[in-house]
Automatic annotation (TrEMBL):
Signal peptide: none annotated. It comes from the Bacteria. Pfam families: Abhydrolase_3. Keywords: Hydrolase. This is Alpha/beta hydrolase. The lineage of its organism: Bacteria, Bacillati, Bacillota, Bacilli, Bacillales. Residues 39-93 form the Alpha/beta hydrolase fold-3 domain. InterPro entries: AB_hydrolase_3, AB_hydrolase_fold. GO terms for molecular function: hydrolase activity. Gene3D superfamilies: alpha/beta hydrolase. It comes from Paenibacillus shunpengii.
Amino acid sequence: MAQPHLEVILRYRKRTSVSSLKNPIALAVGVSIETATDLSPIHHIKKCLPPTLWMCGTSDELYEQNQTFVEQMNQAGNHITFLTYDGMGHGFFNYGWHENKPYNDTTIEIQHFLASLEAEHSAS
């Protein structure tokens, strides 16, 4: 199934050089680069953030940025669980895509992650 936000990016890239495209997601969702930067978690890493579950497909065009985010979260001393999904692109877990297998898999992972936090909190 086509990913509409990626189609916008690809159409834009045909009209623009890739090197000048600083934030394709900002373009896709119709916000300024400044707003996208303000909203992006990679620009707000600090010590003492809550435990985080981060899921990303290895074919996501932002995969390397996601890896960098996870590394920076770890370096700041935050607890982050990084789950990768081989060959999956951006938004792979959206309902209705890939016969809902990634949707169901990631939903289960979220439930396990939240249960682990509850168990950890109960034990302390």
